[in-house]
Design brief:
Blueprint lengths: L2 H17 L8 E7 L28 H12 L6 E7 L5 H10 L6 E4 L1 H9 L12 H7 L1 H4 L2 E2 L2 E2 L5 E10 H6 L14 E2 H10 L13 E3 L8 H4 L1 H5 L18 H15 L13 H9 L3 E7 L2 H11 L9 E4 L2 E2 L9 E8 L5 H14 L2 H11 L2 E2 L12 H8 L17 H12 L5 H28 L1
Parallel strand pairs: 1-2, 1-3, 7-11, 8-9
Antiparallel strand pairs: 3-12, 4-5, 6-9, 6-10, 6-12, 6-13
Helix pairs in contact: 17-18
Amino acid sequence: MGKSLVIGSILVVLCACAADAPPDEDEIRLTLWTQDYWVGITGHELDGVPLDDPRRAQYTVKDWYNKVTRDFKALYPDRGIHIDIETLDWASGFQKIDIAVASGRPPDVLISTSGIALKYARFGLLEAFDDDLSEEDIRDFGPFYGFSEYEGRHYFLPFIGGNRYMVANLEIFRERDAVHLLPSEGDRLWTYDQFLAAARATTFDRDGDGEVDVYGFAMPFQRNSPQQDQMPFFWGHGARQFNDSGDSLVINSEMGVKALQFMVDLEHVHAVVPRGSAGLRNNDVTDLWNAGRLAMRQAHHGTRRSHERALETGVIEEGVIELYPMMYPSLPGIDPGAFVVADSPCVFRQEDEEKRELAIALAKFLTNTRHEREAAYALSTLPTRYSALDVWADDPFQRYVLRVARYGTKDAIQGYGIPLVNMTLSAFQAAMSLQATPRKALDDLARRGNRFIRRDIERRLRAGAE
């Protein structure tokens, strides 16, 4: 072997050893996993930058978290702190989290949905924040803080708020001389009868060929979240998916059956939603909407921003859509209900007190007023602190979205909502396709779902006792 080759080989080995060098014994290592992230620090560095522009390579989905963790470590100059950051997607991320928890190797800090945190709190796997927050912080979080409660203790800090509501296309309502049918006062509340009247008025044959071209309403039943899409129609009937403790399905109540029957009738009696709704995906609904063939649909905190981008890229033509936000309908005397969530950091149980202190401090740092503003601006989401609401002070549309977040219900974020998504959708699809009556579909769902919940609780309790 030549002399230069020997020297080169030694250098490679030395470099490899340096890269894999064990951490300093005094260094405290924290792991931060997050399902919420955006490209760049502000989330807007690439606004208007073409997809093939090489400038895009300068930014990553960890930029903001890298900045924040650097700032956090600077608060502790006398301590050696290393923070490993990992981003998880919304498809496989839940499975990875569950596997890590089951193997006894969860992250120290996890940013995920409220329901995920509540699920792990049920089994005593999380640190509570009650003894580490000031009264000022608790007041500042407002109603979002209540979402984190389980058996009197609070297990996550609200961070990235999101909600659902309804939106109408005013262009279609003007076309049909039906703007007066939309709610306009206060929080823009209305009844199911009023909603149905608006949907009927905006379901029509536009080109005169005898076929319906524009539908009053549509929502997906395939590959979607029932908590976000279908459950608001249950809450508006006074029904719930789960009991108060979140460990039993009660969706098959009398009012639950009436709610599902109402959705079935939208297609099969009133014909104000597309035929074959059981097979609709979110993309199908979006295609109808973008083409100006849908008068009302459900919306979310980022709808206005998505609409602006669609206009910029030519996906939506000028003059086809004008957004008008409003709340879900409900029965007289019953407040509407909406999916409101706060993706939030939780801290898994720590044996080392110093590490626990730092993990709690990191979660608090991530959710301070400054960072709440930055995250809300980056993602067009809702701040979960009163002190950060000014991020949307000059935006009437987002101020309305913020205001109606008060109709959120904890039923939307119970921990077993996500594991039962497919089972729940199957029940709704069976009813919408007339393969089962709403009563049978919901009774079957409650029986199967409650069996799953009981077995899961028993399995986790056995694992915790071993």
